């Protein structure tokens, strides 16, 4: 709209200037009114005057001026793009004036554009002329072949395609003549074909190669991978079976609505409603002002009126409502995390209403959360209304845990079984104490079964000999043992200690410990939508 208004204003100004020029031209023409006759006076001969020129328009090239205005007010990157495209297309050395006439980019009047072009790797500037600078400076077919011959490991086509205009045609010609190999793919590559090592492939071998049929269906690909001892990352059969039973889930369009939170306007509205409710409660209470005595009249017996109710607050549970608002306007992943933590903690099958009461996550009213929970590998949905936690291995006691570990002769990680049931870690320690399993700690704790059929009892003398072996403690002795066994040690302790005696041990510079800032007001504003993801305290003042 702003551009249209400017254009209309420009046209109006042009019409006014046109009217002004027309009035000036009309004023210069002789008046047709009758004048008093003058005596004849001869004048020197003059050439006959030319016809009066027509009134000139204010601008006969509005479109060109508009384009010039748009180009010169555009971004610097856009102007540089226009100039580089012109230089690439023409492949000539042009001055700033010639570039201005072709692209309306005023290099001389815009220092930012000039500096950017001067430093651009695709532009060559000799102090006066601008020209295109290709990656490799070759100008013909022979120079191109010599360049490719220098790169025995291949050169991308992208690096030579800007050398000169007909470079792609020359590449095809060199390929046809057998001087190069041109391989197509994600990045086309050119390889030199050394005449000393040219190979001619047999026609039968080519035919056999092209007759090899690769599997197109994912099921066949997964079968071939398993046949070759590889484990496929996908399970197409399981995915297709689930799609036939439950149907293909449709992805709902997410409307990204900006969470407003509780604003100052909301607080003002709450205060007004509070005042209104207080005035209503005060009006219902009996007035304490003295009234005129009335004549006694008997009334039917009624129940004794109760004391007036206290003023009703607009909301007696502001913290709960604020937390509910924060949870339901948070990210889908944060809501799913809260639900899974509840299911893992309780180990019960809960309905959507029970989950809503405990976590304020409205599964029934949010289709994105429902679909994500239904497809989550850690959540079991019975297809009707119950959600429950789904562990990696469905074991429920100590005996089943031992049977599971014995099925994995090569060991199983603790991480895979720690979510089976709440007391699984205690049972692992008990099985370790009884000698039924081996529990090895490290970067990743692993459990191995202890088969009773292969238990070995070591002799006390053998254990004693093992513990009596003394390992060297000094690095010099360790390096000597390594050299004696034909190994080259990585360190050279003798050299390092000698240098320390001569030059002294370099002191380590003390690192300046930066003061921890903690949570500021800015941090609370930035992470207001993720209060539970980092286990931060849920404080109501963070959302007001």
Main sheet: strands, sense, barrel: 3 strands, antiparallel
- What fraction strand? 5-15%
The total strand number stands at 11
Radius of gyration over C-alpha positions, nearest whole angstrom? 44 Å
Distance between the termini: 38 Å
How many DSSP helices? 23
Give the neighbour order of strands across the main sheet: 3-5-4
- Note the overall shape: extended
Mean of all residue-level pLDDT scores = 78
Which parts are unreliable, with pLDDT below 50 for 5 consecutive residues or more? 32-43, 45-52, 288-305, 535-544
Structural class: mainly alpha
Helix content: 40-55%
Topology:
Layout: H1 2-28, H2 62-72, H3 76-90, H4 96-103, H5 111-119, E1 123-125, E2 130-132, H6 141-150, E3 155-156, H7 157-160, H8 167-176, E4 180-183, E5 189-192, H9 203-210, H10 218-227, H11 236-246, H12 264-284, H13 318-328, H14 332-346, E6 350-351, H15 352-359, H16 367-374, E7 379-381, E8 386-389, H17 398-407, E9 412-413, H18 414-417, H19 424-433, E10 437-440, E11 446-449, H20 460-468, H21 475-484, H22 493-503, H23 521-526
Antiparallel strand pairs: 1-2, 3-5, 4-5, 6-8, 7-8, 9-11, 10-11
Explain this structure.
This protein has about 550 residues and is mainly alpha-helical. It is about 45% helix and about 5% strand. It has 23 helices and eleven strands. Strand 1 and strand 2 form a beta hairpin. Helix 3 packs across helix 5 and helix 14 packs across helix 16. The longest helix has 27 residues, at about 1-30. It starts with a helix and ends in an 18-residue tail after the last helix. Residues about 30-45, about 45-50, about 290-305 and about 535-544 have low confidence and may be disordered.
């Amino acid at each position: 709209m702003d551009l249209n208004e400017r254009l209309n204003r420009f046209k109006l100004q042009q019409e006014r200037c046109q009217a002004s020029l027309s009035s000036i031209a009309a004023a210069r023409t002789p008046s047709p009114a009758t004048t008093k006759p003058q005596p004849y006076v001869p004048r020197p001969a003059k050439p006959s005057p030319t016809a009066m020129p027509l009134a000139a328009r204010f601008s006969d090239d509005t479109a060109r001026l508009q384009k010039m205005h748009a180009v010169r007010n555009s971004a610097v990157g856009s102007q540089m793009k226009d100039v580089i495209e012109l230089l690439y297309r023409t492949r000539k050395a042009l001055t700033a004036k010639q570039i201005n006439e072709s692209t309306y980019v005023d290099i001389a009047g815009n220092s930012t554009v000039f500096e950017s072009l001067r430093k651009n790797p695709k532009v060559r500037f000799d102090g006066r002329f601008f020209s295109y600078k290709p990656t490799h400076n070759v100008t013909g077919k022979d120079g191109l072949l010599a360049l490719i011959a220098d790169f025995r490991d291949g050169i991308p086509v992208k690096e030579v395609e800007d050398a000169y205009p007909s470079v792609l045609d020359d590449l095809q010609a060199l390929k046809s003549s057998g001087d190069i190999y041109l391989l197509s793919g994600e990045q086309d590559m050119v390889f030199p074909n050394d005449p000393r090592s040219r190979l001619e492939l047999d026609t039968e071998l080519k035919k056999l190669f092209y007759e090899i049929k690769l599997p197109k269906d994912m099921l066949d690909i997964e079968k071939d991978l398993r046949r070759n001892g590889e484990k496929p990352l996908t399970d197409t059969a399981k995915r297709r079976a689930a799609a036939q039973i439950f149907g293909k889930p449709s992805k709902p369009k997410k409307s990204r609505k900006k969470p407003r939170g509780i604003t100052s306007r909301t607080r003002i509205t709450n205060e007004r409603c509070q005042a209104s409710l207080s005035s209503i409660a005060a009006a219902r209470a009996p007035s304490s002002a003295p009234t005129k005595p009335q004549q006694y009249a008997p009334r039917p017996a009624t129940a004794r009126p109760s004391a007036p109710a206290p003023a009703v607050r607009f909301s007696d549970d502001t913290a709960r409502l604020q937390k509910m608002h924060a949870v339901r306007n948070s990210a889908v992943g944060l809501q799913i995390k809260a639900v899974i933590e509840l299911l893992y903690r309780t180990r019960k099958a809960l309905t959507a209403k029970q989950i809503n009461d405990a976590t304020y996550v409205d599964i029934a009213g949010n289709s994105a959360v429902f679909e994500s929970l239904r497809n989550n590998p850690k959540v079991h949905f019975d297809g009707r209304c119950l959600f429950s936690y789904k562990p990696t291995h469905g074991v429920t006691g100590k005996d089943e845990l031992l049977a599971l570990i014995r099925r994995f002769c090569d060991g199983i990680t603790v991480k895979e079984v720690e979510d089976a049931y709440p007391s699984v870690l205690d049972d692992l320690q008990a099985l370790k104490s009884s000698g039924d399993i081996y529990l090895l700690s490290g970067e990743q704790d692993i459990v191995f079964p202890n088969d009773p059929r292969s238990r070995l009892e070591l002799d006390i003398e053998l254990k004693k000999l093992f513990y009596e072996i003394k390992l060297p403690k000094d690095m010099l002795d360790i390096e000597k043992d390594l050299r004696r066994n034909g190994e080259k040690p990585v360190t050279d302790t003798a050299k390092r200690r000698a240098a320390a005696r001569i030059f002294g041990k370099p002191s380590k510079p003390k690192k300046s410990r930066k003061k921890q800032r903690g949570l500021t007001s800015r941090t609370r504003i930035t992470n207001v939508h993720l209060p539970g993801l980092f286990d931060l305290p849920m404080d109501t003042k963070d959302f007001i």
